[in-house]
DNA sequence: CGCAGAATCTGAACATGTTCAGTTCTGAGA
DNA sequence: TCTCAGAACTGAACATGTTCAGATTCTGCG
């Protein structure tokens, strides 16, 4: 509520008001039921005004992304500070990542449909989402950086944060589809993957494993919309 | 062109004509530039008529799916018949899967956006896509069934085809994002994954590996929109 | 053949995101 | 205080997918 206070130019205030009304509506009504006309009405501006401040409806969701990923980063960083074990830190990162998405699960499909197209500015991998994506990558970079004795070869460790972030996006994709109570299945998927990570890490010392893994990580890390 | 011949009831003929015009347009113009009004005009029917025969635009893409996956199954089956090595068979299956998608790469984003939402009938994992998905699962079931001495524990082999199909969908997702010439990067991703599969298969005999893998496969195999 | 009911078809109307030509307002400098 | 360029805003118009009440055509039966 404070951000729509009377600070900045008139334009900035209007923009903030639209932003706030939109985010509130996305949270309450989801993506589809939040129409641009509704936002305009609740913000007390005309239809055209929303498009003056935000080029498209998707740009408004972008603002939501940013808010969510910022919370992600802060919470995850705080929680990870207690341990230096890589797998444990990753578990915290992923679990927190699912937690911040929680309030939006009911609306997952709507957001997902708008988000997944490579052309959409809403796509987490698109250039316009870069700030939000950067927050997520930072979480995993910290997760890796703060861990000790994980014995991961340097060249692989370097690509890891980006690849782990893609992993988070895939986990979120699974989560969107997951209709089990409390998204229990997604948790199990995460548990299984992490359980595999422990025994698998030492294998990275074998060239027959390390070489393809490095190649895969590089490809995945570079994926961009 | 034969399917719009004068066979069946009048309704069936109109339906076939609409279907044909739509598929042709999807191939030429992609998803977005194929408007329902355009289809109606080219098929010589009214706007409402298309919605009488196909409840929505997405249902028309469903028809395209089916045609593509049928080609996928036929071609893959023919090509796999020469070998019994699991990894080789999988390579053939996945490579063929990418090949049948080839003509649509330019329009990937449009189709993808329409397809990915769990609510969309267009979603490969939705109930309405079941026939198309079944064709794909059949490809991978055959790939596994026709291979010899792969040494995969029975309980895991059972879930494998469904999980491999999800793998194909993810590969297609990566492919959609892949803007490298001829989607070279996707091929490399596939190569890397398959290179990992060879050395990894024997590890399935270790309980610490097998247990989480089985859990993961089960979760992934059951994913439905 | 004639007719009733079902199948098929029609086009206007609606909701929604987006565009844009034009209008109003704001604030810095004279 | 006055001016005016640019910022901010407006609402009509457009494109598109979908819906629906009604018109038209077809089909089988007497």
Helical content of chain A (DSSP H or I, runs of 4+): 55-70%
Order of helices and strands of chain A: HHHHHHHHHH
**CA-based gyration radius of chain A:** 20 Å
Mean pLDDT of chain A: 91
Write down the CATH class of the largest domain in chain A: Mainly Alpha
Fold and architecture overview:
The structure is a homodimer of 225-residue chains. Chain A is mainly α and 225 residues long. Chain A folds into two domains: 54 residues, Homeodomain-like (Arc Repressor Mutant, subunit A); 164 residues, Tetracycline Repressor, domain 2, CATH 1.10.357. Chain A is built from ten helices and no strands. In chain A, α1 packs across α4, α4 runs parallel beside α7 and α7 packs across α8. The first copy, chain A, is elongated, with a radius of gyration of 20 Å. The first copy, chain A, starts with 9 loop residues before the first helix and ends with a helix.
């Amino acid at each position: 509520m404070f951000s729509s206070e009377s600070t900045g130019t008139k334009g900035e205030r209007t923009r903030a008001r639209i932003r706030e009304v939109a985010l509130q509506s996305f949270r309450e009504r989801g993506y589809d039921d939040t129409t641009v006309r509704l936002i305009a009405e609740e913000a007390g501006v005309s239809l055209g005004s929303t498009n003056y401040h935000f080029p498209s409806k998707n740009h408004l969701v972008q603002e939501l992304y940013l808010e969510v990923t910022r919370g992600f980063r802060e919470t995850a960083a705080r929680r990870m500070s207690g341990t230096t074990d890589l797998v444990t830190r990753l578990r915290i990162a992923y679990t927190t990542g699912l937690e911040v998405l929680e309030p939006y699960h009911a609306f997952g499909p709507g957001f997902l449909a708008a988000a997944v197209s490579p052309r959409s500015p809403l796509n987490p991998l698109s250039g316009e989402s870069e700030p939000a994506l950067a927050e997520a990558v930072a979480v995993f970079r910290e997760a890796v950086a703060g861990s000790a004795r994980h014995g991961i070869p340097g060249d692989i460790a370097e690509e890891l944060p980006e690849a782990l972030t893609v992993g988070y996006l895939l986990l979120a994709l699974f989560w969107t589809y997951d209709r089990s109570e409390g998204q229990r299945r997604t948790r199990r998927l995460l548990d299984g993957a992490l359980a595999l990570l422990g025994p698998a890490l030492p294998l990275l010392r074998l060239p027959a494993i390390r070489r393809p893994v490095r190649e895969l990580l590089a490809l995945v890390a570079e994926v961009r919309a």
